UniProtKB/TrEMBL annotation, chain A:
Family: Belongs to the binding-protein-dependent transport system permease family. FecCD subfamily.
InterPro entries, sorted: ABC_BtuC-like, ABC_transptr_permease_BtuC
The keyword Iron-sulfur belongs to this UniProt entry's keyword annotation: no
Domain of life per record: Bacteria
PANTHER family: FERRIC ENTEROBACTIN TRANSPORT SYSTEM PERMEASE PROTEIN, FERRIC ENTEROBACTIN TRANSPORT SYSTEM PERMEASE PROTEIN FEPG
Membrane topology: Multi-pass membrane protein
Protein name: Iron complex transport system permease protein
Localisation per UniProt entry: Cell membrane
UniProtKB/TrEMBL annotation, chain B:
GO MF annotations in UniProt: transmembrane transporter activity
Family classification: Belongs to the binding-protein-dependent transport system permease family. FecCD subfamily.
Record InterPro entries: ABC_BtuC-like, ABC_transptr_permease_BtuC
GO cellular component, one term: plasma membrane
Protein name, UniProt field: Iron complex transport system permease protein
Keyword Glycoprotein: no
Keyword Zinc-finger: no
Keyword vocabulary terms for this entry: Cell membrane, Membrane, Transmembrane, Transmembrane helix, Transport
A Pfam family of this chain: FecCD
PANTHER family membership: FE(3+) DICITRATE TRANSPORT SYSTEM PERMEASE PROTEIN FECC-RELATED, FERRIC ENTEROBACTIN TRANSPORT SYSTEM PERMEASE PROTEIN
Transmembrane portions of the chain: 12-34, 64-84, 96-117, 123-142, 154-176, 196-216, 284-306, 312-330
GO terms, biological process: siderophore-iron import into cell
Length: 345, 337
């Protein structure tokens, strides 16, 4: 970590253009562009790129326009938004809790968001606009995060305890979720269930417009607090010595993280392990400094989910495998590897 | 863990109390529910069964099978938990925490949705197969433990395996919306409206598992001294682990085939039993079997009353009881390190 301090107590981070960051961003953008093309072209019906492009602009055969404009394009954007939010959420948690194992689904935040969202689908969705769904899900996420944090608190929230309490609360929350599923009418049970699996299947522009404002809001907030996130990396004593309001900033950062995860889960379900993997990839690429890490992590998360979704919906055609199955398949072994690698801590 | 030695009389007394509790909760399980059954009808159903008495029919066809399933599943899951905790020397190990239950239920859902199998006998074997694969994964995870993965980290790894299995199970079910409600009830862990035939198919394997666990118990006491010491005393540690693993597969796989993945029994009961019986596995295991049956019976009775006339799947009840327990033990472990 190349963070230094100067006499007046300001944290100095290296200024100027950071070549690896630029390279990483360029590579990720290129990867995303390729994925975008792939996502518009491939599917149950392959539409060659020139025609897909024309359909995107609204010229071409009407069925192809429908497929590209109403099915594939919103799904692609959704993948990107959900992936970025989860990645940012995980990146914040890993920095604040100072634990490489932290991620919204590991410490119970996603579980809380699921309870909120399933409650919304079961009890409210018939008479309240879907625009409120992220709010329901964020309320659940905040409640779960608060509970986990409170139970894990004892002279500070020690990382391993946080994760273990998160698992315990997680099993309680999933019991709650299945309780609601078992006793809801079957049409809402099956829509809840599809949603729970972590899938962006059937995303429309409505869902995109529901999610987008929240991602932008928390993204901008996070941009304002990126300096505070760097200070968190220094450790409490040094940070307090520098006059930083460590505890307050930590609380704000955690709230941003919970908000991002809650919003993402409300629209995409629990797409497992993205919030764990993406920040790790990003940190390998550009290191831990927040103003480099955050954009790269967001792009990585977006690319990971877009890629996983493209593979999941094309590899077993005509089956459309939920993207969460695919990310868990990669993420779970990676998590165990991380556990093993960090065992001496 | 302090070594608590008790004399045989006290142990027998504790076990006898457990058996009395077991009889009482079995009677409660048969009597109470949406329809309360009188003592005379309950006894009558066994002594002079009359098909024109609705109460007696309920006892014979619904309540009694249910109580028997609760007893055998509760005992099996508790024993499986105790074996896993003994072999891994990990107080949080249990079939639901390390993914064995979820592996078995994934295999069953796979067999039903993808291959269209519905034959009960076949599904029992599928369940064993799924439990076996999951146990192998847990074993690999546990062996990472021997060069430095602490017990708590093994539990974290288990949670990742659980997450993987549950997302794969959900992925299979999303394809299959018809009948989702039925499967949901089973997947939440339920012993309501189960066929006694299903129990008849797995009970031989469970009994083998119970007996084998008892035969293994002196060896578990030696293993509890530590791997090095056990080896020094001439124990074939690897073999003991392997045998214990197979028993866990039989017990957990059989339970899931009958009742779905009922969580956290395997973690709660061994701790209660250890508190009552001490560390000697020759006593600990029977305690686990008896008190595991009692716990599942009582949880099931409770599950009928919470939102009468509907019933909560009993797996949800055990999760709600077990989660605080899990957190309590996890916190205690962290403190003891």
């Amino acid at each position: 970590m190349k963070l230094g301090t100067q006499g007046r107590g300001r944290v100095i981070v290296p200024q100027g253009i950071h070549l690896p960051t630029m390279r990483a961003i360029a590579a990720l953008l290129a990867a995303w562009l390729l994925l975008a093309i792939g996502s518009l072209v491939f599917g149950e019906q392959t539409i060659a790129f020139p025609r897909a492009w024309r359909s995107l602009l609204g010229r071409g055969a009407s069925d192809e326009i429908f497929i590209v404009q109403s099915l594939r394009a919103p799904r692609l954007l959704m993948a990107f938004l959900v992936g970025s939010s989860l990645a940012l959420s995980g990146a914040i948690l890993q920095a604040v809790i100072k634990n490489p194992l932290a991620a919204p689904d590991v410490i119970g935040i996603s579980g809380g968001a699921s309870v909120g969202a399933v409650a919304f689908i079961t009890y409210l969705s018939s008479h309240v606009s879907i625009h409120w769904m992220p709010v329901a899900s964020m309320i659940g996420a905040v409640a779960a995060a608060g509970l986990v944090y409170w139970l894990a608190w004892k002279d500070g929230a020690q990382p391993l305890r946080l994760v273990l309490v998160g698992i315990g609360i997680g099993s309680l929350l999933s019991a709650l979720t299945s309780f609601m599923l078992v006793f809801s009418p079957s049409y809402s049970a099956s829509s809840s269930y599809i949603w729970l699996t972590g899938t962006i299947y059937g995303s429309t522009w409505v869902e995109v417009t529901v999610l987008l404002p929240w991602v932008l809001l928390f993204g901008v907030l996070l941009y304002g607090f990126k300096g505070a996130m760097n200070v968190q990396l220094l450790g409490d004593e040094l940070a307090i010595g520098l006059g930083s309001r460590v505890q307050r900033n930590r609380m704000v950062l955690i709230l941003i993280s919970v908000g991002l995860a809650g919003a993402a889960v409300s629209m995409g379900g629990v797409i497992g392990f993205v919030g764990l993997i993406a920040p790790h990839i990003a940190r390998k690429l550009v290191g831990p400094v927040a103003h480099r890490l955050l954009p790269v992590a967001a792009l990585t998360g977006g690319v990971v989910v877009a890629f996983a979704d493209l593979v999941a919906r094309t590899i077993f055609l005509p089956l459309d495998i939920p993207v969460g199955v695919f990310t868990s398949g990669i993420g779970a072994p990676f998590f165990i590897y991380l556990l093993y690698r960090t065992r001496k801590q | 863990m302090e070594a608590r030695q008790k004399n045989a009389a006290a142990q027998v007394l504790g076990l006898a109390i457990g058996v009395v509790l077991l009889a009482a909760s079995a009677a409660a399980s048969i009597r109470f529910g949406f329809q309360t059954i009188s003592w005379s009808d309950m006894m009558g159903a066994f002594t002079h069964y009359r098909e024109d008495s609705m109460e007696q029919v309920i006892v014979r066809t619904a309540r009694l099978p249910r109580a028997l399933i609760a007893i055998s599943v509760g005992a099996s899951l508790a024993l499986a938990g105790a074996l896993m905790q003994a072999v891994t020397r990990n107080p949080l190990a249990s079939p639901s925490v390390l993914g064995i239950n979820q592996g078995a239920s994934f295999a069953i859902v796979l067999a039903i949705t993808v291959f269209g199998w519905s034959n009960g006998q076949m599904l029992v074997w599928v369940s064993f197969g799924g439990a076996f694969i999951a146990a192998a994964a847990a074993y690999v995870l546990g062996s990472l433990g021997r060069d430095g993965l602490s017990p708590l980290r093994v539990i974290l790894g288990g949670s990742a395996i659980v997450a993987l299995y549950s997302s794969a199970t959900q992925g299979l079910l999303v394809r299959n919306e018809n009948g989702l409600q039925d499967v949901m009830f089973w997947l939440a862990g339920s012993i309501a409206a189960r066929d006694l035939q299903l129990l008849a198919m797995v009970i031989p394997y469970m009994i083998i598992g119970w007996a084998a666990a008892m035969i293994l118990s002196p060896q578990l006491n030696i293993l509890a001294l530590g791997e090095e010491l056990a080896r020094g005393l001439g124990q074939r540690v690897g073999l003991i682990r392997l045998v214990a693993g197979f028993i866990v597969v039989l017990l957990a796989g059989g339970s899931v085939a009958v009742a779905g993945p009922i969580g956290l029994i395997g973690i709660i009961v061994p701790h209660i039993a250890r508190y009552l019986a001490g560390q000697d596995h020759r006593w600990l295991l029977p305690y686990c079997a008896v008190y595991g049956a009692v716990l599942l019976l009582l949880a099931d009775v409770l599950a009928r009353f919470i939102i009468m006339p509907e019933e909560v799947p009993v797996g949800i009840m055990t999760s709600v009881i077990g989660a605080p327990f899990f957190i309590y033990i996890a916190r205690r472990e962290l403190r003891n390190r």
